[in-house]
Design brief:
This protein has 1 helix and 8 strands; from the N terminus they run αββββββββ. The longest helix is centred in the first third of the chain and has 49 residues. Strands 1-2-6-5-4-3-7-8 form an 8-stranded mixed β-sheet, with no helix packed on it. A hairpin with a 5-residue loop joins strand 7 and strand 8. By secondary structure, the protein is of the alpha+beta class.
């Protein structure tokens, strides 16, 4: 009987060590995931602090509005397909335009970037991008341009 108690106690201690090892491993993995997520969040917020855009001009043709967007921050805007462009007519609900480099109704695309010498086809700080918005119906009174990290500017077009 004494040997049975000793074996049971030894197995219990081994199981206790295994369970403790699993719990500690889980805690360490969770701490690593949380630390990585926090670091990523800080980088996104820092990028937002350095991003700024301004609508500095606009013009219109039949069915097209051209908006000049200047990068007034210190962070480049790289992914135009993740930018959001909205327009509104009078007090109606704003209309969202998809990015489409080949154009088409209900889309927007960039026409030119001036000056575009350092990083071609990227909106670097100090550069101005001319975008075309192809609308349907009445000419919009208002436009908003939003960068991929959520920084925006809007302007009345009339």
């Amino acid at each position: 009987m004494g040997a049975g108690s000793l074996v049971t106690a030894a197995i219990s201690i081994v199981l206790l060590v295994v369970v403790a090892y699993a719990i500690i491993g889980g805690v360490l993995v969770t701490a690593d995931v949380v630390a990585t997520a926090h670091k990523d969040q800080v980088q996104v917020q820092e990028s937002r602090l350095h991003t700024s855009v301004a609508i500095v001009g606009h013009s219109a043709d039949a069915g097209t509005i051209y908006v000049l967007v200047e990068n007034t921050g210190s962070e480049p805007v790289l992914t135009f397909d993740r930018m959001a462009v909205f327009t509104a007519v009078d007090n109606a609900t704003p209309v969202y335009y998809l990015y489409n480099p080949s154009g088409g109704p209900g889309t927007w695309s960039w026409v030119s970037i001036q000056p575009d010498t350092i990083h071609p086809h990227e909106l670097d700080p100090g550069e101005t991008m001319n975008i075309s918005i192809l609308y349907e119906g009445n000419q919009p009174d208002w436009a908003q341009v939003t960068t991929p990290n959520g920084i925006s500017d809007s302007a009345y077009l009339r």
